[in-house]
Amino acid sequence: MRKGMCLALGLTLALTVGAQAQVWDELVNGGGDAGDLLPFQQTPGPPGVPLAAITGTIATSTDVDCYSIFVPLPPAFGASTVGTPGTLSDTQLFLFDKRIGPAGGPLGILHNDDSPAGGTVRSALTGLPGVTGAGDLGIVPIPGSYMLCISAFDVDPVSPGGAIWADAVAPFAFAWENAPVGAFAGPGAPGPHTGWIGAGATGTYTIALAGVATKPEPGTLSLLALGGMALLRRRR
After folding, report:
1. Using CA atoms, how far apart are residues 44 and 172, in angstroms rounded to an integer?
2. Exposure of 233 by Cβ count < 10 A (0-12 exposed, 13-18 middle, 19+ buried)?
3. Tell me, what's the pLDDT at 197?
4. In a domain, 97, yes or no
5. Is 92 domain-assigned?
């Protein structure tokens, strides 16, 4: 196994061994509505423990809820509203890279409107690369902090250049990693993310998570940064 991957895997175990997986609720734990922009997202806690799910409410037609999450091992990442409790029937999920883009905001890396499994208008994201019509075309690039957002269809993220993801791309609505190109990229891709457009339904939601933790202590973050740099060097 490559050195960078070994380090990331070891730190993943350090984050999770002996820790009880947490379910974070926007109102009960967060104290109110989760923000829709960096840095106003909620940050689930306590630090450095597995995060099993996030629950909350899309309270208005333009509401978007965003959360700071930590992904220790990108291929293990997953987020889904398919089959989970909640009254919000038509969801959208977005993942943003919190390493700030050139114009001062996070960059869009993954989006899903309707699950590629079909038969539902709920949403699902994965950290594994896929192909058009079979899965998402993006990846979670390195271990680190990301912003996960949920909205109702059709409330979409924008940058100064316009929509980050192209709207109504049939049969799936997925996006590329870092520098989106092709059918799924909007004119504002990949960001920086600066706001939202559109309106949709209201309701409650549950986002089931895999391969996700709460933000670790600063010392652990430094070690994971080293692991991420090692992985990037291996890819070049």
Report:
1. 30
2. exposed
3. 95
4. yes
5. yes
CATH of the domain at 31: 2.60.120.380
Q: Is 14 among the domain residues? A: no
pTM above 0.90, yes or no: no
User: Would you say residue 76 lies in a domain?
Assistant: yes
Residue-range definition of the domain harbouring residue 155: 22-215
Contact 65, 152 (CB under 8 A): no
Tell me the average pLDDT across 126-141: 62
In the chain, the number of structural domains is 1
Q: Tell me the pLDDT tens digit for each residue of 165-194.
A: 876 544 444 443 333 445 667 888 888 999
Q: How far apart are CA 231 and CA 210, in angstroms?
A: 21
Question: Where do runs of H (alpha helix) occur along the chain?
Answer: 3-16, 218-235
User: Looking at residue 34, what DSSP letter applies?
Assistant: P
